[in-house]
Design goal:
disordered C terminus, globular, 76% helix, 18 helices, mainly alpha
Length: 405
């Protein structure tokens, strides 16, 4: 036990050093932490008495990372305005449909063009269609864009994407693992997921007065215990219903977003969000074996280029349809570009069903590149927009006006 605690402490110290370095260079900490996890971990060499493989503590670090995802999604749910979401419902459904359909079709075409069998092609299409909710949430927080005009549409599209993931996993699990093979079984699984999400929207819209009374707790100590205990219970219960635990955390945040205690909860959850969120991205890197990446390098790079193009087109279509500016629409495409935990989940489904082993290095490299490139492109959205504006001439440069005062 003492050895494990020392390993976890060492991992946290490395995370702190990487975060300081990212801060000095004014970069998002996400790529730093992912690369750090790859450099150390089970595949790292031992240097004398220094052992950075984290063999004994990897499960603990992974669990702490899962907690980070819960806090990250819970915070984003708190920032989400359900009333505004309802008003923007049509735009979200349209934008989400365009986003998922474009990425899925491109994934299908890419799988067939690279001679993958049918099931592998379907898995690749699913991998290319799902953004990383955790990374997108982190990018919005890091870049302080939670209040931007396009953020509600981004979050709505991500929620729509998560709903697609639930449907996709339900259908593919039935096809590959022999579970719900009947149409009725698949429809029941999908119906449970949709109904569960709708329940939280109803609670957010109608249950605010009751939640206000339940959370009217003067002691911060007791208040935070009640909120966090509820968060973990709901996340775990969601998983029992085959709804991702991260989505459960997001939905719980949504339910509390309309209460008079939302700002108080935000203030208390921020330190936990930042600390455990950093551990998540480090633990994600720990699961990637850099020695296996070369086998799928060109295949992954091709998928990355297609994803960048598809996301930019989908973001522009969704944003403009919603009446947003070209600049805000560009931000949409750049922000939802990152791939991460859900892509790995889709790939693991295929691997557990005995599909081609190449899916593992392909998914790892594809996710790694976009987990690094996505946040960097989102950070540089202004010069990217300026470059595209010169090319497509969306907006004429403003003429300089002399100051006559």
């Amino acid at each position: 036990m003492d050895h494990m605690i020392f390993e976890v402490g060492t991992a946290m110290l490395l995370v702190a050093i990487a975060s300081l370095l990212a801060g000095k260079l004014k970069f998002s900490i996400i790529p730093f932490l992912i690369i750090l996890g790859m450099v150390v971990g089970p595949h790292a060499p031992k240097l004398g008495i220094l052992d950075f493989t984290f063999i004994h503590s990897q499960e603990v670090i992974s669990f702490l990372g899962r907690i980070g995802v819960l806090f990250l999604l819970f915070y984003i749910g708190l920032e989400f305005s359900v009333s505004k979401l309802v008003k923007s419902g049509r735009n979200i459904v349209f934008g989400g449909t365009v986003y998922v359909a474009l990425n899925f079709v491109i994934g299908l075409a890419y799988g067939f063009l690279t001679d993958f069998p049918l099931y592998e092609t379907l898995i690749i299409a699913g991998m290319l269609s799902v953004s990383s909710t955790a990374i997108v949430a982190k990018v919005l927080v890091d870049l302080r864009r939670t209040g931007n005009a396009e953020t509600e549409l981004i979050l709505g599209m991500i929620l729509f994407d998560d709903l697609f993931l639930a449907v996709f996993l339900s259908i593919m699990s039935g096809l590959l693992l022999g579970g719900a093979t009947s149409v009725g079984g698949v429809l029941m699984s999908v119906g449970i997921s949709i109904g569960y999400m709708l329940l939280f929207f109803i609670i957010a819209r109608k249950g605010a007065p009751l939640l206000n009374k339940l959370l009217n707790i003067s002691s911060n100590e007791i208040f935070i215990i009640v909120v966090f205990a509820s968060l973990f219970f709901i996340a775990g219960f969601s998983e029992k219903l085959h709804v991702a635990e991260a989505i459960g955390a997001l939905l719980f945040g949504l339910a509390l977003s309309e209460t008079e205690h939302s700002k108080r909860i935000e203030h208390l959850v921020v330190p936990f969000r930042d600390f455990f969120g950093a551990i998540f991205f480090f633990s994600f890197g720990l699961g990637i074996d850099p020695l296996t990446l070369g086998d799928a390098a060109w295949l992954a790079i091709g998928a990355v280029l297609l994803t960048i193009a598809a996301n930019m087109v989908a973001g522009m279509i969704a944003g403009r349809k919603a009446g947003l500016s070209h600049k805000a629409s560009t931000n949409i495409g750049l922000t939802v570009m990152a791939r991460g935990e859900f892509t790995i989940i889709v790939a693991n489904l295929g691997l557990s069903a005995g599909l081609m082993p190449l899916l593992k290095p392909f998914s790892a490299l594809y996710v790694l590149i976009l987990a690094i490139v996505g946040p960097l492109l989102a950070k540089e959205s202004k010069p990217i927009y300026n470059g595209l504006n010169k090319l497509f001439r969306w907006r004429k440069p403003q003429e300089k006006v002399k100051n006559l005062g």
